[in-house]
Specification:
Structural class: alpha+beta
Largest sheet: 5 strands, antiparallel
Strand content: 25-35%
Radius of gyration: 13 Å
Strand order of the largest sheet: 1-2-5-4-3
Helix content: 10-25%
Length: 89
């Protein structure tokens, strides 16, 4: 799943999620990773996935880089998934 810049992630959520700044007063900061396919539907984390890992394969080793945290309507076109950035903590 491709990583989306936090700038682009903020744009996606600001434009269409009315209570965005109530949930994220400072926007989506460095403590988060946004990932997903903005132009493909149905490939996303969803309800019940919260707390699960976002994994990265480097060579033959897997690394947990994120924890499923937030999103907007599972797999909705134009919205990435939001993950807590493990390296931030």
């Amino acid at each position: 799943m491709p990583v989306i810049s936090n700038y682009r992630c903020n744009q996606a959520f600001q434009e269409h999620v009315t209570n965005f700044y109530n949930q994220f007063p400072e926007g989506i900061t460095h403590g988060f990773i946004c990932a997903g396919f903005l132009d493909v539907r149905g490939r996303d984390s969803c309800g019940g996935d919260s707390g699960g890992p976002l994994m990265y394969l480097n060579g033959d080793r897997w690394y947990a880089v994120g924890i499923v945290s937030f999103g907007y309507d599972c797999g909705k076109l134009g919205y990435p998934g939001g993950y807590t950035r493990v390296s931030h903590y």
